[in-house]
């Protein structure tokens, strides 16, 4: 983190040399935070103090808006150098963000090799292994010795993370084996690569979804995963830092979608317009769907006018029943998403949820009877009993819906995170209201309480 | 993954030798899944086929119940070997799970060195860096040459992940520098460690919370992080595979707590009893709190009896307002939790949320007026207008609560994930109901509609 002293020194544009040394020695992400925090007109000044390597690293950590601003204000030569030295996957991401005109100009100035690497990555669908992989990795041909392999790794590019594994391919670039730097290091230099490398290569196809990639790497504790095309040719690798980002991004999506935030990638600092875009459609959809629940109440207005305490009790079981449903829904979606449970476990999961649900239903039903006694008059005690019965039934329905909906979605190969919580509460309210009001109305007609 | 063929071969206890070869060559986690899937009486048979290293690895991937079962049924010698070769952090975790009597017996049979390592880790609080670290790392004393360092790393333990970095300490074990295997490998053997190692060591104190550790390692893309005690002495390291697990665990906690699942670590396959334990208390608490919202309605029963359409409209704005609140709450909690935003951004966040909230409020208010026309008779049109006003107000309150509650919690150093969604919907319902019914009652008295 940067000290106040340094901030001041920049604000006076005084001791620029000292600032330059400091900025070039700090971790790139901290420099990124520092530059982001500067007033707009000073960002380019600070950025120009960075040496080539640091500039490239820092650039990768800057947010979208600041990057675009710098692309506009830096000298063409410096910009081209940065773009040329970026990792191909990061470059592809940047090109996705920038206006098409600027991208075209930048692409023209890339070396043919780097242009090819970027085009390859941009050719894959978003959210797949092909899109998140990097094309910077160490490939060894079969037949090399350990000594030759080590020399090759020594010459490999500056990116430290990609160098702890090397991949052995045949003459057609087909992936055959994997070998770790450690294995190479601790073998005799004359040994042949094939003899020390491992044949059991865990790999991903380019079209594999990024969340599956992340789960695979998590499962086998891999620092890097090779990516192959349909012909089993090595085309890139995915590194563990990407896995960390993917897992966090997927968790954010799960959380937000459950809460009815459609986009799944909103941040507190997103623009108000993008917030409205990702939230309002769901809200209006929920209101639209809820017309069903409210319409279920409408025909019973005579009943409500006769027993207005119903309006006191109904929100209570609606709120509680909704919570029961969201609990089951959340636990099920999360378990499926992290791979703790699979749709094959459906019966096992449902059994556990239903047993737990039965206990919960009894407790909540009883609580409902007791609590609603607060508002029912002695003549209305039967309403409390019915509210308890509906509370219990509603809880069981809630548990069943919350468990089976996401499992059903997975079986139909639809992302279960698309089922938002509000959708489930709306369904539960509709069922609960109809059940309760029908029971009460029938009782009224049988008991002839209606005035 | 295991083929059907192998399953059959075991079920016939036929070609045990082939099964043995296969099980010892497969990735440990796959063997773990295989053994877990076997009928209970066959698990120990399959486990005994594993060689020592594989047995230790597989044991670490088995679930709690199966481990306990094996501890009971395996020969003491085999069990002791496994316990002795486990990584100290995994062993500490196992001891946490097992009955105290068994732990005591196992600890007595550990070598003094391993016993010390386990005791050290168990001495730290759960959820801190000290508890998740491993004590297996490579430590180099200042003054060594690169060649000497490499020999030392060559002798280091089988655990591949811990060997890509080595830590340089002074005579008092104080952490001074860090050096990567790659740096060592590509330097002259006679060079002195101090000259090639880096002085900028990112490290954690033993008491640092595991989620902070994970965020730190994520921020700097580290494969391992050294852990030091209060005197800055190196006591362990945390590896990137732990980070992946911690981040996933924290995300699960965030998701579940938001949904009102208290424990935060429930899985679909948890026992019904533990499900009830982690869900029912919240449900009862929510019901208890909701007495406030329902009691707010109770005094207005005369109003409801006079205008029963209120009971049709109220659930609609309660459900929608609740969703608005949970959207803001979720986005804010998640942004704070992944470090996209900090409490210092309060005003910025609130401004963005309020602008978005204003747009949303207007749209929802208007939608409410239009939708509620379905149920209001021509004489009740004014109820629709009021419902729209309350919907809009409630949305703004929802956004404000959803944003400020978690930020306030963070400022007070309380985990914001403790604010569950149902808590917020309960507060919103109470406010909305009081507002709406008061407005309607006043209008009634002014307009003299009450019969």
UniProtKB/TrEMBL annotation, chains A, B:
GO terms for cellular component: plasma membrane. It comes from the Bacteria. SUPFAM superfamilies: CBS-domain pair, MgtE membrane domain-like, MgtE N-terminal domain-like. The keyword Transport applies. Pfam families: CBS, MgtE, MgtE_N. It is found in: Cell membrane; Membrane. Residues 133-196, 197-253 form the CBS domain. Its main location: membrane. Keywords: CBS domain, Cell membrane, Magnesium, Membrane, Metal-binding, Transmembrane, Transmembrane helix, Transport. GO terms for molecular function: magnesium ion transmembrane transporter activity; metal ion binding. The chain crosses the membrane at residues 280-300, 306-333, 354-376, 382-410, 431-450. Acts as a magnesium transporter. Belongs to the SLC41A transporter family. PANTHER family: MAGNESIUM TRANSPORTER MGTE (PTHR43773:SF1). Homodimer. This is Magnesium transporter MgtE. It comes from Myxacorys almedinensis A.
């Amino acid at each position: 983190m940067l000290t106040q002293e340094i901030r001041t020194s920049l604000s006076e544009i005084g001791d620029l040399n000292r600032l330059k040394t400091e900025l070039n020695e700090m971790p790139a992400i901290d420099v990124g935070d520092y530059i982001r925090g500067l007033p707009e007109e000073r960002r380019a000044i600070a950025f120009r103090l960075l040496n080539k390597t640091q500039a490239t690293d820092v650039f990768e950590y800057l947010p979208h808006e600041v990057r675009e601003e710098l692309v506009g204000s830096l000298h063409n030569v410096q910009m081209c150098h940065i773009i040329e030295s970026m990792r191909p996957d990061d470059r592809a991401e940047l090109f996705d963000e920038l206006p098409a005109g600027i991208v075209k100009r930048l692409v023209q100035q890339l070396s043919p090799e780097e242009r090819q690497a970027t085009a390859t990555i941009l050719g894959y669908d978003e959210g797949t292994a092909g899109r998140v992989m990097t094309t910077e990795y160490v490939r060894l041909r079969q037949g090399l010795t350990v000594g030759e392999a080590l020399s090759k790794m020594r010459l490999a590019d500056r990116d430290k993370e990609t160098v702890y594994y090397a991949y052995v391919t045949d003459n057609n670039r087909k992936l055959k084996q994997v070998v770790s730097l450690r294995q190479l290091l601790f073998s005799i230099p004359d040994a042949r690569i094939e003899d020390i490398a491992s044949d059991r290569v865990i790999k991903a196809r380019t079209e594999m979804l990024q969340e599956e990639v992340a789960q695979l790497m998590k499962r086998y504790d891999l620092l890097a995963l090779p990516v192959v095309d349909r012909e089993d040719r090595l085309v890139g690798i995915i590194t563990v830092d990407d896995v960390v980002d993917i897992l966090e991004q997927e968790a954010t999506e799960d959380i937000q979608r459950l809460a009815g935030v459609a986009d799944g990638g909103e941040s507190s600092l997103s623009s108000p317009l993008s917030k409205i875009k990702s939230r309002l459609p769901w809200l209006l959809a929920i209101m639209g769907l809820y017309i069903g629940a409210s319409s279920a109440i409408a025909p019973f207005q005579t009943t409500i006018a006769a027993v207005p305490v119903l309006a006191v009790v109904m929100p209570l079981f609606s709120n509680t029943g909704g919570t029961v449903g969201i609990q089951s829904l959340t636990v099920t979606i999360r378990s499926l998403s992290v791979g703790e449970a699979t749709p094959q476990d459906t019966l096992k999961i449902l059994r556990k949820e239903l047993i737990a649900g039965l206990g919960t239903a009894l407790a909540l039903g009883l609580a409902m009877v007791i609590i609603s006694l607060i508002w029912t008059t002695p003549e209305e005690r039967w309403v409390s009993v019915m509210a308890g019965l509906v509370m219990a039934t509603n809880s069981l329905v809630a548990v069943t819906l919350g468990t089976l909906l996401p499992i059903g979605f997975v079986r139909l190969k639809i992302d279960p995170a698309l089922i938002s919580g509000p959708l489930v509460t709306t369904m539960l309210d509709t069922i609960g209201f109809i059940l309760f009001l029908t029971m009460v109305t029938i009782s009224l007609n049988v008991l002839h309480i209606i005035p």
